[in-house]
Amino acid sequence: MSWIVLSILVIFLFSFVRGDLTAALTETAKLSSQVKCHQEAATLVRLLRDSSTVPVAAASVNGVLKPVGEYSSRLDINSSGVFLKDVNYNDNGHYEFLCSGTPVRIIRLEVLVISDISASEGNTVKLPCFSVTLGEPVESVQWETKGKPVIRVKRSNQMVEYGERFKDRVSLSPDWDVLGDLSLILERAQLEDQGDYFCYVLKGSQERGDPAAGRLKVHQMHIETSTTPSNTKDSCSERRGPWWLFAIVATLVGVTCFGI
Ligand SMILES: *[C@@H]1O[C@H](CO)[C@@H](O)[C@H](O)[C@H]1NC(C)=O
């Protein structure tokens, strides 16, 4: 009997406990879809590392969740969800929705600093990502762009899955799990490769850890058309020699011919 109660409890716990999400600095993070409490008052708090809490939003008189305090200017609550705007690095951490003081949803927000990386069209570029893999239950490494996979490498057998467009153009360092270097090596960079790239390690069930992000810019290769004609012109004028030499020769020839 007790195991039934236990498994129901486990299912119940897992039905709301976590939600991992990432947002880049200054972007808007959707913390949650609308949270509804049945009659009880809803609140949203921030859980800090020192176990203190900061109120983020609370239900007003009509039961609608409203941002409070310093979040008044940065929190948008509308029919599509709860949004935290202009994300800063201190927004990293856990957020908890409560119904009458009982937690119903915990969200972990991970704030990413996007580094700018540039490449020339056709060249190889490396997007950095690092994570401690030694003694960690890292199952695979995944890179994504525009919400689609770029590469996924399984640790157990080094099996590689590629996102379309990236087949045979992307790789990780062969000893990535020894070095903890999960940087993405992208070969033959194309203009369409431009965009934000996200790196994650997948540990255990669904946990995405140690994310890193890079904003790739690909520069077009120019064929320098302006130098070629000017070079030609220079060598022509050199070959032609000084104008006065021609004038003297022409005059001499003219005089000689006239004399004859
Ligand atoms: C809700 O707010 C977010 C963030 O400001 C915005 O992007 C979204 O369009 C809004 N949705 C509605 C339905 O107003």
Explain briefly what this protein structure is.
The protein has 260 residues and is α+β, with helices and mostly antiparallel strands.
Describe this structure in words.
It is built from four helices and 18 strands. Residues 5-17 and 227-241 have low confidence and may be disordered. Strand 3 (42-47) and strand 4 (53-59) form a beta hairpin. 18% of the residues lie in helices and 41% in strands. The chain folds into two domains: 2-112, Immunoglobulin-like; 114-219, Immunoglobulins (Immunoglobulin-like), CATH 2.60.40.10. The strands form four sheets. It has a six-stranded mixed β-sheet, with no helix packed on it. It has helices spanning 2-14, 176-179, 227-240, 243-259; strands spanning 20-24, 29-32, 42-47, 53-59, 65-67, 75-78, 81-84, 93-99, 102-112, 114-120, 125-127, 138-145, 148-154, 160-162, 170-172, 184-186, 195-203, 207-219. The protein is elongated. It is α+β, with helices and mostly antiparallel strands. The structure holds 2-acetamido-2-deoxy-beta-D-glucopyranose. Residues 28, 76, 78-80, 83 line the site of 2-acetamido-2-deoxy-beta-D-glucopyranose (NAG). Its main location: membrane. Residues 1-19 form the signal peptide. It is found in: Membrane.
